[in-house]
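Can anyone check this?
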Amino acid sequence: MASNELAINGDRLWHSLMELAQIGATEKGGNCRLALTALDGAGRDLVVGWMKQAGLTIRVDQIGNIFGRRAGRDEALAPVMTGSHIDTQPTGGKFDGCYGVLAGLEVMRCLQENNVQTEAPLELAIWTNEEGSRFVPVMMGSGVFAGKFTLDAALEARDLAGLSVRDELRRIGYAGTDPVGGRPIGAYFEAHIEQGPILEHEGKVIGVVTGSLGVRWYDVTVTGMEMHAGPTPMPIRKDALFAATHLMQEVIHLANDNQPHGRGTVGAVQIHPGSRNVIPGQVTFTVDIRHQDEATLDRMDQHWRQACVNAQEEFGLKVQLTDVQYFKPTPFDPALVGMIREGAAAAGLSHMDIVTGAGHDAVYIASLAPTAMIFVPCKDGVSHNEIEDAKPEDLEAGCNVLLAAMLARSGRLA
């Protein structure tokens, strides 16, 4: 049997997704399965049980990352890995992260029932706390694995109730003993819903992800003076909101001036004192700018910093800019990207190159090993929402491309 004759069981993949979705199901058809809650523990138990049934050997590390290994002929070779996460947003959907894990599981099931042996071993990873909804930092498990932050810092992170990652891992039974990181990875593939509208808009089934946008996050505080809205003439006001709105528009102009990959978002705003008849004395807001090209993102950063200086001088107010986080643009491995492109073409699936604007565990793993991602469409581009949806046939197609790419990289023997 030629490798391209192998095909995953789409019905089984769909039913597995729907069964996992029952754990933490919400009224609107989504999921609330926050990291390291009892529901997350139940979800882990379910998927780990399936992994064992598929013949995988399970290991858990000290941050709770789960690895299921399928032996290869040459166990000295670094494994070809796939995976994602199963924790969700508070009002999350059924597919974000979960699809990547269960697509990887379906690949393993397919190989097992067809008695396929590979030269290199294969592994399926479930990364801890990718969403960052309950504990920060975001993409915690893969971040510690990749050395982006320390194990102790992650274990001591606390939620709003003061509960720590360390204690919650113990409580749900996933405080593993394996060291975090240091595991060799020959290649890493991650399948995911797009979380955007491009594939659906372009009528494509497979997104061949060539890399991720770089991200810069800032907090901005504009300080003026609150005064009575009636007696204070316009020319002598120090209206913090007036100045802040100019800066907020600059964020959008900055993104529009750097298309097609420029992004600019003001996502949260706080106004003090927040009274109808008081001129705002202080406004705090968040800024998120993104681009695929590092040099362009650096220029956007410089332009944004200068805009804050200019606003301070123009409006006579104080503008405080604080750097929050920076993710460099991450190009994915050309050889792995090519395997995904070839797999889609061989299956006769419509496909296009695309970049990811969202953060994924793959972005951190790309600093350790050759990495690539496969996207499939989601309805109306909606994600991080209970109404998140995807077509079973698209999920099946993406999983078959994952199967082909993993076999191409690991070397099928029989």
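Reply from J.R.: I decoded it. The two ends are 8 Å apart (CA to CA).
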